[in-house]
Design brief:
Two copies of one chain form a homodimer. With about 425 residues, chain A is of the alpha/beta class. Chain A contains 13 helices and 15 strands. The first copy, chain A, folds into two domains: about 5-35 and about 315-410, Alpha-Beta Complex (Aspartate Aminotransferase, domain 1), CATH 3.90.1150; about 55-310, Aspartate Aminotransferase, domain 2 (3-Layer(aba) Sandwich).
Chain lengths: ~425, ~425
């Protein structure tokens, strides 16, 4: 502002925040969450805030459905069908038609199902007798580590080799040996959004299958699984979907593949006739084939209640607000934080940005500790990254301004 | 009673029940559960009743730990260490020293970890380069179906063959080709208890590893995992451990095997340094190596609260009461049910009996429907089995007498 002869004519960041908040159509959704005053919560990309609909619903599940109805609830309270029902509730948020998503297990377990399933669908690996010659899995080298570890196991049990690559390098490395590619939609560390449509198309052009991890994109931006012909996908529900700590993950199997999807975890609840208790396995049709064991009802129904916050909320509006929030945060950081003190590693281009901003900062661990003390909650990723997640359903522009201002104060002294 | 000239001198079953209840040391434990009057709940072997400690604790987890502390709870509320902590709480109930049990995932997923892990520990299967020649898995042919389905998958991914056998036939079929054997401790259908010490010893004598499924025994009778040198074991927590619908299962890996245990699901939370976010996998020591993804906290902490009912309760006392309950039930059925109408398929010998009684009955589905209408809740297993589970912590002898009496009335017409 030093160049202006009349600084008071320019609106301050506080004033801009006020204006942006007053025009925010999603501002009303914040009341659907339990949020305390004095805390600016920018860690919804790690653990989403508590939706106000959850505590009462879960109490009813425990006291009445479990405590009074007990086993009758498997039918009468809809417990048995919860994995598919909740999957269908998530479906529109990731651009999937109904009947392709099933909720249950952790993300890691679903990565295993999806990747082994993809190799088998490609006729790849050893011992499938299909001779496709597709014996290689490619995995995102920048992925959240669990995907890489599980991919290594998937390669081992299917007789494939595994290569880790930067997502941008994938198109150049695809070949007729590639069986499947596992990619993250948004880099958990930098917040970089990868080009799902183009990468999926390139993978398909090589004859391989595309498996996407949506942990850091689902609920924050449009994914378009059906539109872009994604083969299989997984995601967690405790970040932008606010399902609670360690809430069940989900598996998407495109309709086109469901009939041939061959899960490496064929538990009894994925059987065509689970109560027939037959010794021979016969897979259920549809999304149900992605199930494994008995559904974890308490966590699953907490998630279902949490998804009520999406009532009347479109993912495009969420994306627009998310970009406005991260843009504004970068502007405020620019204004409040002494130059050279932090450096954004999150792409500037909207097409390459998820819903978080990651700032490299020399003493990031200590800085985050002090931010949290002052009520600005992000998280620290070793060795030197301050990570701030922006959940458009409950983060406002005043939060953003305050976070950047406090960050400026903390790093200044 | 027709042979007695003075029937009134013999105590009635009602009187006997009253006496047995008055002498029952565990009778006081019933108050730790939410149970309604007028219902005799004999389905705790499917879904345990609600412990009174659960609703309040879970509400606190949701409102305070998640809603207020949010991500801080991973440390401050002990979320991160819950899988091992709760495993150690289950350990004494199954005769395991601390540090060998980790809670998480479903039983089916844990069967996969345990069985693939066992084959690898035996140096078996293909592609391990150890040349042990052990390329066969044996599985209990009478098992709950999921174990058989998952065993088939475990065989496929390790390059083994699979053979299903009656547990009694296992010792005669073991050979130097056997890598691992998966057995159920109690048959879910008949309630037959298998001889874990003898079968484990026979399996070991052949050089193979023993994997036991404890779903229908843990919490109902002593298991003695350490004493009998069981290699790996799994179990659910929603039956006799009362953890709630679909609550997380557990995996036991004997101390002797932990260092070489090689999980097919090496997720990030089983890493030696999970927050190092390293691209290379390095397994954690101890029970933690059996983890996979982010722990499912709501269900897990509900389970932890549920385990409080075991305070001051020894598993030997539970076993003694369990046998007294099933003995008394069989006597009452004998007295109240018209001859030939039902036939017990549960062994008479205590050493062969779990904590349930299964009665074959021609129109079992309809009979169970009418029993439930009259407040006697067991379950029906196709095609013709009435299954009654006896949870010594909350089932009393008067319940038993009433259940048999109502059964007699229902089948009489």
């Amino acid at each position: 502002m030093s160049e202006s002869s009349s600084p008071s004519l320019l609106p301050s960041k506080t004033e801009i925040a006020e204006q942006l908040d007053s025009r925010d159509e999603l501002a009303k959704v914040r009341a659907r969450f339990v949020l305390d005053f004095g805390v600016t919560y920018l860690d919804g990309n790690s653990l989403g805030a508590l939706p106000a609909s959850v505590p009462g619903r879960l109490d009813d599940v425990v006291r009445r459905e479990w405590g009074e109805l007990r086993i009758r609830s498997w039918d009468e309270s809809g417990w048995w069908t919860a994995p598919e029902r909740i999957g269908d509730r998530i479906a529109p948020l990731v651009g999937a038609a109904a009947g392709q998503i099933v909720v249950g297990d952790s993300t890691s377990v679903n990565v295993f199902k999806a990747l082994v399933g993809a190799v088998r669908l490609a006729g790849g690996g050893e011992g499938n007798g299909k001779g496709s010659g597709r014996d290689e899995i490619l995995v995102d080298a920048t992925t959240f580590p669990t995907d890489g570890y599980i991919a290594e196991s998937a390669a081992r049990v299917t007789g494939c080799t595994l290569r880790a690559l930067e997502p941008g390098a994938v198109p150049g490395e695809l070949s007729d040996r590639t069986a499947a590619v596992l990619l993250n939609h948004v880099d958990y560390r930098t917040g970089r959004l990868h080009d799902l449509p183009a990468l999926t198309a390139a993978i398909h052009a090589s004859g391989a299958l595309a498996v996407w991890d949506l942990c850091h994109s689902a609920g924050a931006l449009p994914v378009g699984l059906d539109e872009h012909g994604v083969d299989l996908a997984v995601g967690c529900t405790y970040k932008y979907l606010n399902g609670g700590p360690g809430s069940p993950a989900y598996l998407y199997v495109n309709h086109a593949h469901q009939e041939r999807f061959d899960s490496p975890l064929p538990g009894w609840t994925s059987h065509a006739d689970p109560f027939g208790m037959r010794p021979e396995y016969a897979p259920a049709p549809g999304a149900t084939r992605g199930r494994v064991g008995t559904p974890d009802i308490l966590s699953m129904l907490a998630l279902e209640a949490a998804l009520e916050v999406w009532e009347g909320v479109g993912i495009d509006a969420v994306r627009a607000k998310s970009l406005a929030l991260t843009d504004f945060f970068l502007e405020c950081v620019d204004e409040y934080v002494p130059e050279g003190r932090v450096e954004s590693v999150t792409p500037v281009a909207h097409a390459e940005r998820g819903s978080q901003v990651a700032l490299r900062c020399e003493d990031a661990g200590e800085v985050m500790r002090r931010l949290i003390e002052r009520g600005v909650v992000g998280d620290f990723r070793r060795p030197d990254v301050l990570r701030f997640g922006f959940t458009p359903l409950y983060v406002g522009f005043a939060d953003v301004e305050r976070a950047a201002r406090v960050l400026g104060e903390v790093v200044a002294g």
